[in-house]
Amino acid sequence: MGRIKAVDPRLLSTIGCSLFFAYILSFLFEGQVLYSMFEWSTVDTSAYLLAAIAAHLLGLFSCGYFVKSRGAVRYVMIGSMGLCLLATTPFFFGPSALWMGGLVVSGYTSGCVVASFGSLLKTFTPKSERLKTCADILIYSNVIMIVVNVVAMNVSPSIGLILSLTCVMLGMLFIWALPTNSMTEEGDKTKRNQDQHNNINKPALLLALFVLIITINSGLMYQVINPAFEHLTGLVSWYWAIPYIIALIVMRNLPPRVKHSSALYVGMAMIMAAFISFMMLARNALDYLVVDTLMLGACGIFDLFWWSILGEMLDYTDNPVRLFGMGLAANVFGVLAGDVLGMRIVSLQLSYAEVTVIALTIVSMTVALLPTLNRHLVMLLKSHAYLVVYDTMSKPQQNAIIARSATLDPLTVREQEVLEVLLDGKSNRQIAEMLFISESTVKTHVRNIYSKYDVRSRAELISTVLKNQVGVPS
User: What is this structure's pTM?
Assistant: First the structure.
């Protein structure tokens, strides 16, 4: 244990959470271990799956209301993992009411673990590295899940369940090894711009709405697409998450100067192509490879998008558990809505063409929402890799953007200097220090700039100015 505690806390939290998330993916959250247990026992799955997902949603949403300090996070995570262990043991025995109770308890407590990870991410990972940490956890947990799935589907569901619970126990060990001094230190409040802090609610709500809508298609995938290929047990057991992992690796390692935002439109196109292919193709192995590659590749792009966006938003809240939990609750709620919609589609026996129309309509809604979401996130998280990165441009490019911006009245020399620094994401205090003027003078210049651009907030100003990025020579 002493050797484990000597390891970098960021690595400890990454490994511990990856192991536990593998349990969620392989068993609890519509995992193949759970499906294999149901098939082995001939139990109807619908009510159980919906109960588990609903409980997980509630855990994500509510955890931040009673876990408000870093000191409580470690103990909540370990205690919740322990409850998951106990609640899952009834599945080693025949079907009973304990199965439903176990799924509800483990669903809720696992939601608390995932929400609490937001605090670990903020504490142990620098802001600039959170995208990579999120990618690492999603990659590692899915790799472990593939191993567990292969065993559950091709060897024995019980052995797969043992492996899932082993992941929980190992995850508890790594979380327990985290340094308590870092978890309990409350004095280092994050320095952040007050305007950004006050404006976090709208970007967070827009992100939640975007996540909720786009993940409805994930629920449709579980209920409509996956059952159509259930006869390909061997292939599905190992290939299902491979495109997801590859997409995560690609997105994780894109150079900073590459605009990640364009990948979101690629992801939307992949979802549309997946459902169109599902409608037109047959149900053989090659067709499965096409549909799954498109669908899960898109899921990888989007999951890393909102995980990492939430990771950067953590610097603008004193309750990272609540923010992270509520953000991912939108994801789970979208899957739950998609599940219910998918079950309804199956009961009505709609054609695959009708399912495709529904999916394309959902994607169209997110395409319409994305520009508005991007504008608000640019203001809050301007340096995020998925968003327009103003400060990676050369000075002539930045000056060209400002020169192309239309104002009601020309900016003074000092106002132009303030605007240049403001677009770098600096606070009023930082601008004052850089330009050797008082903070009140900065506020006066900012008000004048707002007036000349006819905007009322920093978000509107940045959105207005950065619209002129398109067409700036490199």
Answer: 0.79
